[in-house]
Structures are given as C-alpha cells and as structure tokens.
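User: quick one - fold this with pyridoxal-5'-phosphate bound?
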Amino acid sequence: MNPQHTATKRVSAIKYAIRDVVKFAKDLEAKGNAITYLNIGDPVKFDFDTPKHLKSAVCKAVKEGENWYGASEGIPELREAICRKEKRSNGIDLVPEDIVVTAGVSEGILLTMAALIERGDELLVPGPTYPPYTSYSKFFGGNPISYRTIEEEGWQPDIADIESKISTKTKGIVLINPNNPCGAVYDPKTVAEITELADQNDLIVLSDEIYDRIVYEEQFSSTARVAKDSSIIGLNGFSKVYLATGWRVGYLYFHDLDGKLDEIKEGVKKQARIRLCANTPIQKAAIVALNGPQEHIQQMVTKLRKRRDYAWKRLNQIEGITCTKPKGAFYLFPKVHGVGQQWKTDLEFVLEVLRETGVLFVHGSGFCETYGARHFRSVFLPSIKTLAHAFDLLEQFMIAKKS
Ligand SMILES: Cc1ncc(COP(=O)(O)O)c(C=O)c1O
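Assistant: Sure. Structure tokens for the protein plus pyridoxal-5'-phosphate:
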C-alpha cells in the first residue's frame, strides 16, 4: 500500500468487542435472518424510556435558544448540580472546579487517558474490564495490565494479585463498580484495601461509577467515600441511570485533597477547551435530571431485578453453562465449559450461537483475554418473553451440541 494511505499503528490498538461483533449479525440479517441483540447495554433500545420531563427539558432548552457554545468544563449550574448529586448519593464533597462535563463517560475516559498515560506507563485494569480502558491506554502507548477478579467470589477484585502487579511503571488502578461486564458490586472493605495500596504506592485511582444507582441487594459505596483522602478521578454520567444513552453526557470529577491531581486535571481541562464544549441543550436537561424527580430509578431497578432473577436462573439450568449472580448493572457473564474442547475460543462459540440461533452475545475475551476467556456477556434488559425466547434457543443449541 502507498505509505501516504496507511492508517496510524495507534488505531490498530482500538478494539470494542461489544460493537465489533455487530457486523456478523448484520450480515445474517441482510440474508433475511431475525437477530435478537443481547450485546449492547442500551436500556433505551428496550422498554425503558427516557423520563418524559427530561425529554421536555431538551425540547424547552432548544426552543428557548440555549443553542450556544457553553463553558468548556460544563455549564456552571450543571457542575453545581453534579456536586450536590455526588454529596447526596455518594457522600462525596466536591466543588464545581473539580468537575468536567464530557460527551458521555466515553469521552471522559479518553480525556483522562490522554492526560495520564505516557509511552510505557502501566495501568492496572480489572480483568474482565469495560474495553475502552484497555484500548485507550494502548492507544496512548501504555500497557494495560489486567488484575484478577474472582469469579467464585462474585467477581470481587483479588487484592494479592493487584499488589503483585504494581511496578515502578504503574500509573494507576481502574475500578469499575458496579461492574460491566460481570455485574459485581464491590465490597467496601475491598475498595478500601485497593485505595490503601494506591496510597502506599502513590497511584491514582480511576473509579467508573456509571451504574451507581443500579444495584439489586448490596449498598453501593463510592470509592471516594470509602477512601476519603486518596487521589481519585471519578467517572459518571447520565446514559444508564437517567436512561439517556443517545444524549452523550457524562462527567469527570477530581477528588484530590492535596493537589496531586492538579497537573492531570489541567491536562484534561486543556483538552476540554480544544474540543470547545459538551452539548448545551442536553446539559440543560441534565440539570433537570439531577434536580428533578428520581422515581424512575427505583421503577427501573425493580423491573430489572425480575429480569436479572429470571435470566440468571435460566442460564444456570442450561447444561454446560454456569453463571454468578449479578448484583448491579444489567449484564450477566456466564462461563461456557465447552470452550477449549468443543469450541476453540469463546469468539467461536458466540459466532456459532449467532449463526445457529440468531442470538447475539459478546465473547468474554473481548473484555479480557486472560480472565474473560471461556465466557460470554449477555444483557438482561429485554422483557422476560424475549429473554425466554433467546435462552430457549441457547438451551436447544447446547443440547444439540451435546448429542
Ligand atoms: C462501565 C462503563 N463506562 C462507561 C460507559 C460509556 O458510557 P457513556 O454512554 O456515558 O459514554 C459504559 C457503557 O456501557 C460502561 O459500561
């Protein structure tokens, strides 16, 4: 190929299994096959609608002329509302200067990684993890190192494994709590142990808490609340809890008592300025989301709990599949015992299930080659009727493969 036409090596590091598998389903759909998509964690694509008052707030903002470029770090009123929300829900003390409003947590991850990761730096990420943490750290020349989370203990982080993987090159530790893809809600004692390790080694903790209010049994404890005086970059947003995935609004906060994060914070703010600002009318509606009625959250969690219970039970009834019970978010991460024998890889398993049943899952190695292999991820967002149909097909598939 003409060298002028080659793409950078950087972009070859980008993988996002959750959407990368869609092309296989689209090919089958084009040939007339019906597909049940259980790959993407978008509640709004199922029967969870964006609350009416929030839809009206966007329309009102546009009609009233709130269509200008806003402050790069976010509209001040929204940053104030975020401080109040983090205090109310998660017990964290923040001031508006600690907040940067982003185009979803996705942009928050990108801005953080760009300010944090230098060539050769290591970042400890949960194994399995939400893929952008590995992809973006590689994109900036870093080495993501997966630490074990323990399946038999509901995918809680393995402290000894984290400790053994801290090196002179380690820059930080990522926590995703509640967790995507495993559905774990971390024990506050475990979170405290991780932040102590981070403090002892002068590491920064990145805490992704986008599912903070989608928990089924355990109380969720925010990392900054548990750690109190560690240096923490928190990531949160509106996609899941406020049922507004397509709005693309989220935020970062810097919980930092001794100024350790000042340079990184400024690095993030510089990037915020060069990309001008997040979407203004949506930020106006995000203020209404935080300050207005919250009833939809409990309703959503109640509906999801029933679906979680059904899906978890059904999957464990299928021979050759076992699954730990998710405690938060809306994902299941079952193990397929035949991977390594009947199927060479979990990707091969997922693609064969897709071809033969029309149900699309995501292969576990797409979340971590080491700790996610031999698993797959399914959402439990659809109605019980749709879940029943998908798991009936999966069950028939597994029975047919046995004989
Ligand atoms: C853990 C986690 N972080 C971030 C995101 C992306 O969120 P946003 O829609 O705010 O970009 C997701 C989406 O699935 C997620 O699961």
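One thing worth noting: The pocket of pyridoxal-5'-phosphate is lined by residues 41, 104-106, 130, 176, 180, 208, 210, 237, 239, 245, 250 (CB under 6 Å).
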